[in-house]
Amino acid sequence: MRRPDGRAHDEVRPITVQHGYLAHAEGSVLYRQGQTWVLCAVTAEAEVPPFLRDSGSGWITAEYAMLPRSTAVRVPREGRAGAVRGRTHEIQRLIGRSLRAVVDLEALGPLTLRVDCDVLQADGGTRTASVTGAFLALRDAVATLLEQGRIDEDPVRDTLAAVSAGIVDGTALLDLDYAEDAAAEVDANFVLTGSGRLVEVQATAEAAPFEWAEFESLAALARFGVEVILARVAS
Questions:
Q1: Could you tell me which of 61, 54, 29 has the C-alpha nearest to residue 136?
Q2: Which pTM value belongs to this model?
Q3: What is the C-alpha separation between 106 and 48, in angstroms, rounded?
Q4: Cα 23–chain centre separation
Q5: What PANTHER family does UniProt report for this protein, alphabetically (predicted)?
Q6: Domain coordinates in residue numbering, the chain
């Protein structure tokens, strides 16, 4: 099938990363993957949640939001009408879990790294772009904390990235844009480490159930895609 932007089935959208996008955050990046743009910022706080007090361990948590005109139709600003939506909670927890999977929290010490991911523009894959951008911002924040002497060693034990994959018109595709995601028979998100280990997989049949072989094809695409993404952001 021909993709809307002419990419091959296993091709990741163009990626750009602007480090130090915000002047005051310990780490920040503007992460662009195609027409999905996410601003990720990390704040280091000298406290931890109550369940970690006196443990010597640190914590990483995340917040996620889509700005009102990040999409074709204005998205109402969350929180003004009350509770945050379930999708937002899900993505925030995904980002936090993913980052904690590659960080030694004891080596971080009694600090909380609070990660804010704000989607400036959305064209599919906002949660996966947020995970990747959040990891890059976290790496920058860790470098700042080491330079300031607020931590004694690098607590990051592996690299991390995320990518979407799906089946559209019977074809397995990597890194879906919005039009592809909306038409997908199967929609999946993969979070993997640079060493090739799985952190999280989310895969959903949008209509009929799908076969194991189809899932395996998506997983292979995702592993290749994460390798491509990590190579690009490292350069």
A1: 29
A2: 0.95
A3: 12
A4: 22
A5: EXOSOME COMPLEX COMPONENT, EXOSOME COMPLEX COMPONENT RRP41
A6: 15-233
Burial of 52 (0-12, 13-18, 19+ CB in 10 A): middle
Tokens 């980052």 belong to 99
DSSP letters, 100-152, are HHTB-HHHH-S-EEEEEEEEEE-SS-HHHHHHHHHHHHHHHHHHHHHHHTS-S
State how far Cα 6 lies from the chain centre: 24
- Is residue 189 within 8 A of residue 201, CB to CB? The reply is yes
Identity of the residue numbered 125 = G
Q: Rounded CA gap, 130 and 128, in Å?
A: 5
* Secondary structure (3-state) at 11: coil
Specify binding-site residues.
Answer: 87, 125-127
Residue type, 84: V
CA distance 1 to 166: 13
Residues that constitute the known binding site for phosphate = 87, 125-127
CA distance 70 to 38: 10
- pLDDT tens for the 235 residues of the chain, in order: 789 899 999 999 999 999 999 999 999 999 999 999 999 999 999 999 999 999 999 999 999 999 988 989 998 888 765 667 888 999 999 999 999 999 999 999 999 999 999 999 999 999 999 999 999 999 999 999 999 999 999 999 999 999 999 999 999 999 999 999 999 999 999 999 999 999 999 999 998 999 999 999 999 999 999 999 999 999 7
Name the residue with tokens 């076969």. 211
